């Protein structure tokens, strides 16, 4: 590792890491230990490590001092020497005491799954808001572990698990950490206020919002771009970032779309979820994730080709529950069907609120969009209106904002047949000439 001119540590080569997982019998786990370790490996590689070995120990319960057995910890020290590994990553969150004890035995830097995920987030955060939220999560994770972490932080400098957003050196002085937490919390409060104002504005204009949620790498951003391409009135709407890596998206992006029925909506891309998503992270990202809470419709994007997609659905549902968004109208979108074999899709569920697409290859998109329309605008009513000629403003509004099916110039005004949202229906009630067909209908 070298220090550059700004006093930052720059890692010249990848850190070699050993992964350690515990297979505890009575744990309420969605995943097998093997799958969980595979995911940990993906996370470690995303953070820039090279995984040289994976250790799994079967135990009745977690050891309070060492997490694994002390004997196993000693074996890991030997493995580290043999394989030249400088980092050991544990598959669960460790206490400060466990971190300290393990470092003493294995004589290498020790981090846990939480620190690893936080590290990836710290590297990915782009916006001021994203950076603040990650730093808050990191500080809150570290606060009860400062003593345990002291050694690893001072030794590994810029290594995985020790990097903050913006590569600043981490403070391990308790008083400074506490002050910084308070400072960030007050800044996040301002961000929240700002978002609230924006939400209130949107609410006033009655534009519904749709949030894309789901496991990391399931294709949320790709789907968002595709929907934008199909439902955009300006072709130049800025695309969101897509990448084949975990946590490509950390900042929520809002884009306006227009449905074929001319109704508008705001589409929101969000950060992906992962199993054992650190609670501090969910807490810190509440300002961002609140968008999910206030959305009118969720698109829960699932990578149908992932053999663990059922577990990924459960994890996503659990996080949604934590965000009080589990009972929102949700369309489950099975994505990447271009990569499914004919035999694969037999097991996949069907239903009103389920869609199958390939966001990349533009398959099933019209179907999904019409489902979205149906859910969002199901309160729309057919109406025939006669608008007097002096109210050209209403005629323009209806022609621009609603899906006009008939327009005739008559002696007493312009006759317009269209579909109206309840609010508009009430507003223009005086002009409605045909009140017989008032039942709800959809396009
Ligand atoms: N084959 C195939 N690949 C897809 C499809 N949709 C997305 N991908 C790929 O999946 C990878 C992840 O896509 P993203 O859109 O970045 O996924 P995401 O859910 O936004 O990921 P995070 O932001 O990291 O949570 C990219 O390499 C995409 O090209 C699809 O329909 N078919
Ligand atoms: Mg994304």
Spatial gap, N to C terminus: 61 Å
Relative strand content: 15-25%
- Helical residue percent? 25-40%
Number of helices: 14
Uncertain ranges = 1-11, 438-443
CATH fold title of the largest domain: Rossmann fold
Give me the secondary-structure topology:
Blueprint: E1 2-3, E2 9-10, E3 15-24, H1 33-46, E4 49-59, H2 70-83, E5 87-90, H3 96-106, E6 109-112, H4 113-124, H5 128-142, H6 146-156, H7 174-204, E7 209-214, H8 220-230, E8 253-258, E9 264-269, H9 279-284, H10 286-294, E10 297-303, H11 309-322, E11 330-335, E12 354-356, H12 365-376, E13 381-387, H13 392-401, E14 406-410, E15 413-420, H14 422-427, E16 432-434
Parallel strand pairs: 3-4, 3-5, 5-6, 7-9, 7-10, 10-11, 11-12
Antiparallel strand pairs: 1-2, 8-9, 13-15, 13-16, 14-15
Helix pairs in contact: 1-4, 3-6, 4-5, 5-7
Bound molecules: guanosine-5'-triphosphate and magnesium ion.
Can you describe what's shown?
The protein is α/β, with parallel strands linked by helices and 443 residues long. It has three domains: 2-174, Rossmann fold (3-Layer(aba) Sandwich); 206-376, Rossmann fold; 381-434, 2-Layer Sandwich (Alpha-Beta Plaits), CATH 3.30.70. Helices cover 40% and strands 20% of the residues. The protein has helices at 33-46, 70-83, 96-106, 113-124, 128-142, 146-156, 174-204, 220-230, 279-284, 286-294, 309-322, 365-376, 392-401, 422-427; strands at 2-3, 9-10, 15-24, 49-59, 87-90, 109-112, 209-214, 253-258, 264-269, 297-303, 330-335, 354-356, 381-387, 406-410, 413-420, 432-434. Strands 8-9-7-10-11-12 form a six-stranded mixed beta sheet, sandwiched between helices. Residues 1-11 and 438-443 have low confidence and may be disordered. Bound molecules: guanosine-5'-triphosphate (GTP) and magnesium ion. The site of magnesium ion has 5 residues, from helix 8.
């Amino acid at each position: 590792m070298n220090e550059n001119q700004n006093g930052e540590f720059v890692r010249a080569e990848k850190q070699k890491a050993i992964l350690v997982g515990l297979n505890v019998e009575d744990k309420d786990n969605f995943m097998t230990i093997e799958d969980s370790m595979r995911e940990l490996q993906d996370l470690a590689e995303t953070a820039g490590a090279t995984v040289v070995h994976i250790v799994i120990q079967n135990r009745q319960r977690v050891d309070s001092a060492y997490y694994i057995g002390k004997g196993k910890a000693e074996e890991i020290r030997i493995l580290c020497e043999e394989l030249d590994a400088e980092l050991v990553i544990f598959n669960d969150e460790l206490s400060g005491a466990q971190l300290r004890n393990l470092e003493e035995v294995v004589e290498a830097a020790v981090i846990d799954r939480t620190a690893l995920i936080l590290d990836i987030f710290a590297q990915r955060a782009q916006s001021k808001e994203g950076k603040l939220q990650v730093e808050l999560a990191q500080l809150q994770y570290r606060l009860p572990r400062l003593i345990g972490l002291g050694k690893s932080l001072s030794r590994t400098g810029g290594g995985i698990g020790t990097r903050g957003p913006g590569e600043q050196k981490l403070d391990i002085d308790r008083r400074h950490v506490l002050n910084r937490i308070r400072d960030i919390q007050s800044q996040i409060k301002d961000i929240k206020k700002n978002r609230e104002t924006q939400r209130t504005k949107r609410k006033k204009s009655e534009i519904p919002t749709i949030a894309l949620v789901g496991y990391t790498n399931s294709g949320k951003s790709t789907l968002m771009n595709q929907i934008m391409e199909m439902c955009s009135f300006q072709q130049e709407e800025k695309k969101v970032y897509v990448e084949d890596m975990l946590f490509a998206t950390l900042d929520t992006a809002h884009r306006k779309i227009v449905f074929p029925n001319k109704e508008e909506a705001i589409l929101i891309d969000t950060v992906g979820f992962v199993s054992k998503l650190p609670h501090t992270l969910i807490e810190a990202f509440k300002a961002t994730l609140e968008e999910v809470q206030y959305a009118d419709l969720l698109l829960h994007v699932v990578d149908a080709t992932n053999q663990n997609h059922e577990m990924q659905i459960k994890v996503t549902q659990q996080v949604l529950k934590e965000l009080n968004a589990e009972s929102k109208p949700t369309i489950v979108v099975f994505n990447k069907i271009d990569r499914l074999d004919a035999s694969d899709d037999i097991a996949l569920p069907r239903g009103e609120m389920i869609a199958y697409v390939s966001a990349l290859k533009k398959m099933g998109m019209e179907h999904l969009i019409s489902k979205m329309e149906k859910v969002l605008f199901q309160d729309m009513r057919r109406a025939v209106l006669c608008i007097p000629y002096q109210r050209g403003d209403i005629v323009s509004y209806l022609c621009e904002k609603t899906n006009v099916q008939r327009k005739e110039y008559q002696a007493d005004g312009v006759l317009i047949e269209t579909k109206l949202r309840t609010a508009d229906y009430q507003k223009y009630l005086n002009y409605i000439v045909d009140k017989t067909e008032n039942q709800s209908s959809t396009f």
